[in-house]
Amino acid sequence: MMDDQVESSQVETVKSKELDTESTANKSMASGLSGDTSCTASTPNISSYFNQAVEDDPFGSIVTESTKERSTSAPAHPAPAAPSVGESKEQSSIFNNELSNQNPPSVHDVSETVSDVSPAETNRMFDAWIPTETTRRFLVQALATGGKFHLPPDKVLKPRLAMADTQADPVYQETFKLRGEVESQKKQALNLNNVEQNMSGLQQLIKAECWRSALDLTVILLTNMNQGLQPVGNSMESVISESSMKVWAVRVSLLTKLRMYSIAEAECQQFSHMDSPELHFEFHHQLYPGRNGSMVPFSLRLLYACLPQFLGRHNESLDRLFYIREQVTKILHNLQSGGCEDGGATVISEASRTASLSLWRQRELQVLYTLASGLTDMREFRLATKMYEEILVKDADNACFTYSTLARVCLLMGALKCAEKYFKLSTDACKDEELKAGLALLHSGYLNVCSGNYGQAPALFAKAATHPLLTTLAKNNAAASMLYSEQVKTATLVLEELIMSDPSKYLQDTIVTNLCSFYELEVNAALVKKHRLLFLVNQHKGNGFNINCLKV
């Protein structure tokens, strides 16, 4: 009896600390919402909507470009342009961060249209970018002088690593400290010693979520390109190339995923806002004859734009994103007006124009989703709502998920009626009957929590969890809603059973963070249970796992 009273008191204490009241006129709704709506991510990171995005390769778009598979595929969503900042924060929110890190769940693939054009045309559409007037003049001079043009010394890029330290695995180290070599050696993750030291090896490490080993490999690759900490040999210069920019793009993504935001920004700042003449193929026309456009992967542009928000400079991030959006809009206008992407006189085929329009409309959506995410993170909910309404027009195929997101933005504003309307539009727009039924249950669970009906919400979430696309989200929310009704032990059991059903799949940052929060509410053995979870992470996850989630 005494234990139950202590536990109840602890629950109330956690609620008062973690929940941010959105509206004094509706305290019951505020009790169901977390004040954290941070952007991953992405994230890095990055989890999206109701799919279990943690299973996907978060760096797929960069690695795909780096292996030049452009003739068969296009990046489905940005590289972890906004890994969720909130992933490491203590929370048991009913929204679990998924609201603010919104990439399109399935932005239209352009693979079919790309396959109809030549490799040269594919390069043109992927590399296209409109340089600033100053950069354009430098490029004209470089082409006119036949390779004899030299930039002013203050304009020359000299990219160097800001950090080259070998990245230790904190989960492995903590496991070794607690249990010694026998337990720590259960880790079967890849490392630098068992992959090739090239882009293929980098892709393997990323796929296995061995992000720290992958970061170490980028140091080796960039050092080999004379872009390491120090110049190699007698040469004080290094040549910017398409290959080196792809490695930089992966490296910055990894730094962001590992929350090394300051280092990522410092390394990005070397590239002069991604607009230096040296970053264009025309400047290196002897190495890339006949090729135009920018060497900077589009995913890196988005990530560079998002970095300031991870360091608290949200307005600067929005400025960069709106600039990218303006450029993308110009490219789409040029294509729709009968020209090529940069507005030049190059004649392109109709098949190439169709493929390019698909690609740049997809990229426009990436920017819009990232902007909406940033506005949500800034708690500019009304502006975020307008952005999602624009997305509805441009991405009608994903209206089901966009309406659901709009509804959750309304819940954060305290507008239950508005949220209910958007939830209904979401289920009406869903074409899959089974998914529609699951979403209806999920939405009903949200509304019950926000209305203070905590007792009814867990059953609704549990039924929604039967749909494979909703399992993670629904069970995590079921556990969170149980916490609000002081069912700590049951909530803990729900997450434990979810993780043990497939540790490799469900040992996700948010789930682990929530479970460890629940352990802290128990009277005894919290640290012992966290250590068991640590050993499980060591056994099943790569060395990119965020140990802060375990709170050890």
Walk me through the topology.
Blueprint: H1 2-18, H2 27-30, H3 60-66, H4 111-114, H5 119-127, H6 133-144, H7 170-184, H8 199-207, H9 211-224, H10 242-257, H11 261-268, H12 298-310, H13 314-336, H14 350-377, H15 381-394, H16 399-413, H17 416-429, H18 433-450, H19 457-464, H20 471-484, H21 488-501, H22 503-506, H23 509-521, H24 526-540
Helix pairs in contact: 3-10, 5-14, 7-24, 8-9, 9-10, 10-11, 10-12, 11-12, 12-13, 12-14, 13-14, 14-15, 15-16, 16-17, 17-18, 18-19, 19-20, 20-21, 21-23, 23-24
What's the order of the H and E elements?
A: HHHHHHHHHHHHHHHHHHHHHHHH
What ranges have pLDDT less than 50 throughout 5 or more consecutive residues? 1-113
Q: How would you describe the shape?
A: globular
Helix coverage percent of residues?
A: 55-70%
Structural class category: mainly alpha
Cα distance spanning the termini: 29 Å
Number of helices: 24
On the 0 to 100 scale, the average pLDDT is 81
Query: Which percent band covers the strand fraction?
Result: under 5%
The tally of beta strands, per DSSP, is 0
Radius of gyration: 24 Å
Assembly status: single chain
Largest sheet: none
